[in-house]
Amino acid sequence: MNFVEPYQRLAAFYDSDWGSFTNSYIPFLKLLDQEFHLSGKKVLDIACGTGNLALILADMGCDVTGVDRSPEMLNIARAKCKNYSTHFLIDNMLSFDLGAQQFDYIFNTFDSINYLLTLDEIKQFFTQVYRALKLEGYFIFDINTEHAFGFRHIGTHHREINGIRFIQKHRFDAPACIETTRFLFDDGEETHVQKGYQKDQIENLLLLMKFNIIACYSAFDLVLADENTERLLFLCRR
């Protein structure tokens, strides 16, 4: 079996299935724009994928830099945002290095943070974000809690997207709260591993890193989250 990195194969048809998720952010972005005036702000989009959020932010007048570990996803992002002065770099969430640059806003969306499988890794990521964020800058991210795993995504599914046939298999390790999703193609396999976290675990880490938690919403209905919320949307300030 030929094994490939996450999103190496999915990149080709990612937008046709998962790309519309970014539209869920539009009401929240409009709210941010009304409150803090996004236009003209310097924005970093970490784990930017195919550039859907970067495109929306650029169209709102932001100066956007996108970072992602997948060259296949970034190629699509660059083509999508070619009419804007956006910048895209290949780098890792835990080790991205943008030198002395600092940003007014940093985004990390579509549960990308769930790919970090320990609290120590999340702490390392928050440290990276803190360094790259301007004083009084904003950090916005969403994350799946333990309540989101093991219920919706279960079993084996035979799928076809844009003429590409594949099998999508889910396995959930309940004690560890680890979900493994295998995408089986005729010529290889792409595996994704994610972990669910508790709301207070993430809040405690943010406070430890000296972030000010402005709000924690139930994404994306913008009501305040509780302990049973499946996906959290955090708005924080340095």
Which descriptors would you attach to this protein?
globular; 24% helix; alpha/beta; 13 strands; Rossmann fold; 2 domains; 238 residues; five-stranded mixed beta sheet
Overview of this protein structure:
By secondary structure, the chain is α/β, with parallel strands linked by helices. The protein folds into two domains: 3-147 and 198-237, Rossmann fold, CATH 3.40.50; 148-193. Helices cover 24% and strands 35% of the residues. The protein has six helices and 13 strands. The strands form two sheets. The protein has an eight-stranded mixed sheet, sandwiched between helices. The chain has a five-stranded mixed sheet with strand order 1-10-9-8-7, with no helix packed on it. The chain is globular, with a radius of gyration of 17 Å. The chain starts with a strand and ends with a strand. The mean pLDDT is 92.
Supply the number of helical segments: 6
Q: What is the CATH superfamily classification of the largest domain? A: Vaccinia Virus protein VP39
**Fraction of residues in helices?**
10-25%
How many beta strands in the DSSP annotation? Answer: 13
Rg calculated over all Cα atoms? 17 Å
- Overall outline: globular
